[in-house]
Amino acid sequence: MQKKIYFLSAAIIAVVFISLLVTESFAYPGGVALRTKKHVTTGCGGCHSQNSAITGSITGPDSVLAGSTVTFTLTINMASGSGKYGVDIAALNGTLAVISGSGLKLLSGDLVHSAAITYVNPKTIQFSYTAPGSAGSDTLYATIDRGYSGAYNWTPNKGFKIYTVSGIVNNETPVSFYMNQNFPNPFNPVTKITYGIAKASNVKVTVYDMTGRQVSSLVNEYQNAGNYFVNFDASKYSSGIYYYKIEAGDFREVKKMSLIK
Questions:
Q1: For residue 11, what are the β-bridge partners?
Q2: In angstroms, what CA-CA distances link 111 with 70, 74, 90?
Q3: In whole angstroms, what is the distance from residue 154 CA to residue 96 CA?
Q4: Does the bond joining 184 to the residue before it have cis omega, within 30 degrees of 0?
Q5: Residue where a domain stops, chosen among 130, 163, 196
Q6: Last residue of a domain, one of 115, 144, 163
Q7: For residues 128, 134, 136 and 140, what is the CA-based torsion angle, rounded to 10 degrees?
Q8: Given a cut of 90, is residue 113 above it in pLDDT?
Q9: What is the distance between the alpha carbons of residues 20 and 231, in angstroms, rounded to a whole number?
Q10: Average per-residue pLDDT in the chain?
Q11: pTM for the complete prediction?
Q12: What's the number of domains the chain is made of?
């Protein structure tokens, strides 16, 4: 009788152990933040070991308009094995938000899994990003893990530019009207055009395709004397040659630019 009790106890312990192994090997089933390269260099160390079998990438636009909201995608790949996923996504300057159905939640400013993410290979997860209100640059970071094997890895950082539509370069009054060659050129998908207004005027800056059809009006307002810039975002246009024209007082000038996607 005593032996049966021992065997029964051993069986119960084994079941409990297996249960714990299955349910608890995913160390943070409700998500853990502040584990990306924005914050630490140890990743998910302690509960997981770094493993190149799990890889990922963040894809999305290379330039974002200041103050606007866009969508980025995190893709997770595994060379072999199984096990539910966990993620931690962080932005250096911008603000992250959850897209419905993504399986994410906001925690300490990061996006993390709200529950262990079911294994699919590859797994794509979309999330929302809102840019700061001024021009500059930003970076997205992500740490991914495979819970049941205790493996984690970092994705390559995703860097991109934050641009404003237009603005004043400086308060100096140029000697004459001018319009510079856009930069960069060729470009994809955003380029900057700088120009100078020698005296207060009604200013128009427009973009045309090779057929002469106007595709964008970048500036159409009264501007005081000064040096200005305007950005042309060609995300919705196809590759090719475009022309941009300035009209300010009696000043007219046209230049050519190349969009290569």
A1: none
A2: 15, 11, 7
A3: 18
A4: yes
A5: 163
A6: 163
A7: -20
A8: yes
A9: 56
A10: 88
A11: 0.72
A12: 2
